[in-house]
């Protein structure tokens, strides 16, 4: 894929722009009016995404009907929910966030040593997509492949500073992976599939893919004109987002409005990605979300993407294909699937919807 070899124009770090003290953002970041947050319906004071207490799941997955029911309803109605008592240590959540904040606070020349390319996206990045002249988002990020071991990002892609970063990130990955494996069982049961169906479809416990995207959204002098991250659905299976409960910004589409997510202290935000929409033959749906820019505070979030093993073709479960509900998607590997977002950048739900026409 030649177009994915390099960025189409010089990369500008949003952090550098923000720290240069400009009061007007460059045109490259100004969204068309239809995407500007100030001109759209936002629902802030209505009920947000569901909050689900997972404590009953930790011992016996089969025994906790009410929790499974709550997850199932959240996946059907929202595609998003928050979990508390999820088994990931709060202390570790704080530490991994602070460690990555320390990384982004280093001088630019230190971070530039990890500058990424669209070939694998691993490393320090400032755009998604390679379309020349595209309108860009107000955020930088760091991307790593964590699992399976065979595709784990090479040593040279991992920041060497702060020295604790790798160990803490690995510890966090292990705990989140356990949570994901539990949720995969819950989702399988919710769909009426065998309890291990989804995990097996993802390549088994050690075979599933895990990538980490640490998002860094610098302060923005004109947050009404741009977005920290444009509307998109996540291409993978399921996302576990660790976001700051003090600085909001994430919004989820609900009908024609955007609902602001207010994470509870210690909570993790879970959302369904396109691969689970495909596997469930559209019973569960990946939902569009976006991130607002903020003039007063910078914001950090860690998105851990739990994905199918990238070389396994994945299609709708045959149990969910009936004469009344024929298969909506043809099987495809995740490697094939994610080329689209890597080339075109975040574009709402256009990718998964486009599959249906075929
Ligand atoms: C993402 C994402 C949301 C956030 O990285 O895919 O949607 O709040 N992040 O940073
Ligand atoms: Ni996302």
UniProtKB/TrEMBL annotation:
UniProt record similarity statement: Belongs to the iron/ascorbate-dependent oxidoreductase family.
Name of the protein in question: Fe2OG dioxygenase domain-containing protein
PROSITE patterns noted in UniProt: FE2OG_OXY (PS51471)
Domain Fe2OG dioxygenase: 207-308
Reaction catalyzed: jasmonate + 2-oxoglutarate + O2 = (1R,2R)-12-hydroxyjasmonate + succinate + CO2
Domain of life of the source: Eukaryota
Entry keyword annotation includes Nucleotide-binding: no
Any single GO BP term: negative regulation of defense response to insect
GO molecular function, one term: oxidoreductase activity
Species of origin: Rhynchospora breviuscula
This protein's record includes keyword Iron: yes
This protein's UniProt keywords: Iron, Jasmonic acid signaling pathway, Metal-binding, Oxidoreductase, Plant defense
Necessary cofactors: Fe(2+); L-ascorbate
